[in-house]
Amino acid sequence: MGHWRESFFEVVKSTAPIVGMIVVLKLTLLDSDATSIALVLLGSIMAIIGLVLFLVGARLGILPFGERLGGKMPQFGSVALLLGFGVILGFAITIAEPDVRVMARQVDLVSPGFFPPGSLILAIAIGVALFVGLSLLRTALQARLVTFLVPSYLLLFLLAFLARPEYLAVAFDSGGVTTGPLTVPFILAFNVGVASVLGKRDGVSDSFGIVALASIGPVAAVLLLGLLLGSGG
Amino acid sequence: MEIIHGLFHGMDDVLFEVAAAIGPLVAILVICQLLFLRMSAREFSRLLTGFGLGAVGLLLFLQGVHVAFLPVGEELGRTLTTSSSPWWLVPIGFVLGFMATVAEPAVRLLNDEVYETSAGAIPTSLLLWTLAFGVGLSVALAIVRTIVGIPLWTILVPGYTIALLTIRYARADFVAIAFDAGGAATGPMTVTFIVALGLGAASAFPGRDPLLHGFGLVSLVALAPILCVLAFGVFYARKGRASSGESQESTEPGV
After folding, report:
1. Spatial separation of the C-alpha atoms in residues A30 and A126, rounded to whole Å
2. Cα A21 from Cα A35, distance rounded (Å)
3. Which of A181, B74, B92, B251 is the most buried (most CB within 10 A)?
4. How far is B248 from chain A (nearest CA, A)?
5. pLDDT of amino acid B174
6. Can you tell me the distance from the alpha carbon of B237 to that of B218, in angstroms, rounded to the nearest whole number?
7. Is B203 a residue whose pLDDT tops 50?
């Protein structure tokens, strides 16, 4: 059970600075009544225990499962099947991502009717799904990341130029919120698994890049949605 | 009593979120196991245990962040903006962004995968510091943006243009890691805590729409690590070229 020891010390070392800093700020600059200090301390302990459990769990379950599944998919010998699976995977985990729903709700709160929450979530999920598929295509073709990355960003710039400025901040943030604590490790490990079978040129550059492309998809989709809604109203 | 209540306040919402997020992954695990993975019962239950521990851990972690860190972030943003010296928020934002990234779970796991696939060739602790430095810078920049009121695109467009141009000069493995790092850095720690700080600042600052200025922060947090890890990769390409007298093939520049 080396996982436990290792993860425990890692978490304590990595969270001690921020917890210390928050306590210092609380005592010097902010309200420092006993109740709120106690809440900060107890909440920090809770977060630390949670982080230890999460890392142990991810190393025991989520990462090995992603790598194993990713390593298995290419063995069916069909690129179409791999891409199809990736699209479904991307869609399913994004719909479930809590941060995406939180953001859709916040946006609707500030400006009701600007983005109907359902259509925003759907656009983000479709964007992630298509770009996870695109990224797996890159891994399967053993293509360079730049050949996919540069045109994607140019497309984003074009859409950003066309869309109204109000849509810009929400669109670019949706790229960040889709990559949550469960999604990132899982799709990373999945692609590492796929690349371990298909990618032969260079282990590291074939294995990474999927999160990058998966966060471009939703930005493009939300900007497109903005264009559609903008021209309709 | 009050403390206990505060500590578990709103935990049912967090529980629902975690369950909704882990649900599809468990479903995929079970379906793939039945259809084609066919792991041994021991292997399968080990993975399920991992998923269970991960879910409980995420629940406690998110709840702890919500109770302990989020209110402090918001209070800090509000208090300092209304004080005589809002510029203090800039260095404090840098330090908090740096420290939050060091504690970010997805960043830890990205490091795991980098260490494993590069067989230890890429120094992951240096990668972590670079990443944390990048997020620190972007939080500082985001606070400057709130105080001065610059439009988002004047930072994003030049930022991404520089990133795309830098790709040519950085080592291929660093390019892929750099762009993934942008996604990994925008995890629950940074997003909840730092966005609270930004929202607090924007809501207290006269003439700033809190939500319009609160949004956009995540995209800056995603951009800065890309630039910093790429810069790190350029440095490595240089260093590789300088010592290429002994080994030629190990440092192919470009992508």
Report:
1. 43
2. 18
3. A181
4. 16
5. 87
6. 29
7. yes
In chain A, which residue's Cα lies nearest the Cα of B106?
A181
Q: Cα–chain-centroid distance for residue A190?
A: 14
Residue in chain A nearest B160 by alpha carbon: A153
Gyration radius of chain B over CA positions: 21
* Rg, Å, chain A Cα set: 21
* Phi–psi pair at B142, nearest 5 degrees: -65, -35
Q: Shortest Cα distance from B97 to chain A (angstroms)? A: 9
A42, B59: Cβ pair inside 8 Å?
Answer: no
- Residue A143 banded pLDDT, cuts 50, 70, 90: confident
Number of residues that make up chain A: 233
Q: Which phi and psi angles does A140 have, rounded to 5°?
A: -65, -40
pLDDT band at A25 (very low <50, low <70, confident <90, very high): confident
- A110 contact partners, CB below 8 Å, separation of at least 6: B209, B211, B212
| Tokens 């805590």 sit on residue | B193
Token pair recorded at residue B24: 């599809």
